[in-house]
Amino acid sequence: MSLLCFLAFIFLPVVKCFTEVQMALMVPNDTHRLFSVDIVLPAVNIGILRARSFLPSDVNFTVHYADSKCHIGVGINEAIKLWYAGKVHVFFGPVCDYAVAPVARQTRFWNIPIVSVGAMAAEFKKFHVEDYPTLTRAGAVDFTVFSALIHKFLDQFKWNKFKILYEQQGINVSDDFCKIMSSSIYYTPSNKRKDYFNLGDLGDLENIIISEIGIGYGGMYIVWLEFINGKRDTTLIPPPLQPHILVDLLFFFFGDRPHFPK
């Protein structure tokens, strides 16, 4: 709402200044995604109804949809087309990290806010001021916080060595979800000995455990995380160790639940 309309609304309540809020919704049309348009759009409509309950009646909302396809090139291309057509005051999405990153970098030059429930990688927080000043992350998952939690967990049990195994596309949330999560944990500053591997590059799990752990470590704990029907399932499996053996290695599996060797 322009300043003139705002002043008119304050001092001359009978004056109506019709204002159109242009909203760009950029989420994938892929129904296999947890944030596909058929899931997200009803929530956007609920938000509009709630906004209308306290905003002046002459404020209208228009939602322009674009399929981001969770793609690094498609997302920014659709954003440019919407901006050039003058059809956006605020972006909702993209969600996938690779898709939202170039859009969020560009919106700072357009001075347009962008809201995403994705943008989970640590870089979005680390470089927020320099590269993503108009981005608001509204999601439940923040890999920076998650990584800090993992390291506190390690500190609690005085584990100083750990390895992470992940599947490139192990969880159908966003592209490289498991890889980005694993790298966020790995690159969190600490004095621990650590490493992370892509299961697809290393072969079968039994050989990986034998070659990467061996008997020299004294034992291991295995943790795997997976999403089942949108809910996170976390399992901690202790090994059959003697009480005097110190456990000093933690394995994290990010992806589908693996088949462990007997």
Highlighted features:
262 residues, alpha/beta, five-stranded parallel β-sheet, five-stranded mixed β-sheet, disordered C terminus
Could you walk me through the main structural features you see in this protein, from its secondary elements to its overall organization?
The chain has 262 residues and is an alpha/beta fold. It is 37% helix and 22% strand. The chain is built from ten helices and ten strands. The strands form two sheets. A five-stranded parallel β-sheet has the order 2-1-3-4-5, with helices on both faces. It has a five-stranded mixed β-sheet with strand order 7-6-10-8-9. The longest helix is centred in the first third of the chain and has 16 residues. The chain is elongated and about 65 Å long. It starts with a helix and ends in an 8-residue tail after the last strand.
The overall strand count is: 10
Q: Sheet with the most strands?
A: 5 strands, parallel
What is the count of helical runs? 10
**pLDDT averaged residue by residue:** 77
Looking at the structure, what is the overall shape?
Answer: elongated
Order of helices and strands: HEHEHEHEHHEHEHEHHEEE
Outline the low-pLDDT stretches.
6-12, 224-232, 236-249, 257-262
Distance between the termini: 66 Å
* Helix-strand makeup class: alpha/beta
Strand arrangement across the biggest beta sheet: 2-1-3-4-5
Proportion of helical residues: 25-40%
Gyration radius (Cα, Å) is 23 Å
